[in-house]
Amino acid sequence: MENRGRNRKEILAKLRLILGNDAKYEDGKILCSMCTKPRPIAEIAHQMFLCSNLGDSGLFPGSRRLEQEVVRKLADLLNGKSKAGFIVSGGTEANLLALLAARDWLDVSNPEVVLPESAHFSFDKICNLLKLKPVWAELDNTFRAVPESVERCITDRTVAIVGTAGTAELGAVDPIRGLSEVALAHGIHLHVDAALGGLVIPFLKYAERDALEFDFRLGGVKSITVDPHKMGMSTVPAGGILFRKRAFLDHIKTETPYLSDETQYTFVGTRSAASVAATWAVFESLGREGFTKTVGRCMALTRLLAKNIETLNLKLVVQPTLNIVAFRTSNSKETAEILQKRGWFISYVPRLDCLRIVIMPHLRRQHVQTFLADLSKMIQ
Ligand SMILES: Cc1ncc(COP(=O)(O)O)c(C=O)c1O
To answer: Which of the residues 60, 104, 266, 343 has the least number of beta carbons within 10 Å of its own beta carbon?
Structure first.
């Protein structure tokens, strides 16, 4: 830190310069992110609540109510009856709280969790932190969990099963009904990681939605991760964790020795209400109709991209279920590197040797068409 402070104009000019190095969603080149440009109303709401700390929410009762309202809205959307949940720092923290609750609910020694091979890498961190042994279950040829394989992994030390509604790599949705039946039969916790899919599936066309059951209507589902900072078009950081019943909260509770609240439930202590307000504002502003329109637009672009990739004689890894397209070229890694050099932010997934594109709300038809034109030039 310098000895003397600088003036505001200089500071802001420097910050603008630095910000110029960051990728911009509106340029339409970011094809690999599960976050997106927040809605304008989210940016305004975020600014308004910059000073509110939900880690000491006795001082900020308005913000606390807002968080409860957001949780209630998410629970409604996912057919939950309880309002037990929090807006946390992201999907990682949400998954962590779910597995902490599951582990301490059953309280067995040397606990294990059954994870399909497609589970998000956050579970590697979580297993490490919570001293849970991961037991990996197989996927079928559409990269979805196989309930029979999950069941074979269960032992008397298993405390939870994880299913994913919208895998990070392919957007695959596990057969959550099958996993729920396994969980109920063995009396263990099923956590659904719907970080992405939780704000996509409820807004799909009825027939598609119906085939992708994943929420609290299934009795075995005890907790769900659903992230407003992904398809919720809110500001970062906004993850969501919802529990089927309040009793789970006892297992993630910490007494606070000196704050205005006697207890905290999140892993993060001091936490901003800004992204909670942003999430609330987006939900109020768009309503189900607005979300349905945005999701419909993303899915239409996803299908357009997938169809055109096939027209180029490239192979899709799977037909997209949600707004992710994964495909292979004769040398996928090299193709990804060339596309990256041309300014596209695109992922290469080594595990599946494929390229991966996430169609988020910041992408428009012309962005996808420009990308396809570039790709087609490259592979000819
Ligand atoms: C399915 C899934 N779960 C969890 C996460 C982790 O979320 P975060 O990066 O917000 O912690 C992601 C991130 O992309 C994800 O796609």
So the answer is: 343
Q: The tokens 């962005």 sit on which residue?
A: 367
**In this prediction, what percent of the chain has a pLDDT beyond 70?**
100
Alpha-carbon distance of 29 to 371, in angstroms, equals: 8
Are 348 and 333 a contacting pair, CB within 8 Å? yes
Helix (H) or strand (E) holding 91: helix 91-106
What pLDDT is stored for residue 170 in this prediction?
A: 98
Taking CA atoms only, the protein residue closest to ligand 1 atom 16 is: 168
Provide the pLDDT confidence category of residue 107 given band limits of 50, 70 and 90.
confident
- The DSSP code for 145 is B
> Are residues 224 and 216 in contact, defined by beta-carbon separation less than 8 angstroms?
yes
Residue nearest to atom 12 of ligand 1 (CA): 91
Q: Which atom of ligand 1 is nearest to the CA of 197?
A: 1
Q: Determine the atom of ligand 1 nearest the C-alpha atom of 237.
A: 10
Among 93, 96, 122, which residue has the most ligand 1 atoms within 8 Å of its CB, making it the best to mutate? 122
- Determine if ligand 1 sits within 6 Å of the CB of residue 231: no
For ligand 1, atom 15, which residue shows the shortest CA distance?
Answer: 168
Distance (Å) of CA 24 to CA 81, 148, 293: 39, 44, 23
> Which residue is it, tokens 């032992």?
155
The alpha carbon dihedral of 43, 45, 51, 57 has a sign of: negative
Interval 350-369: pLDDT, tens:
999 999 999 999 999 999 99
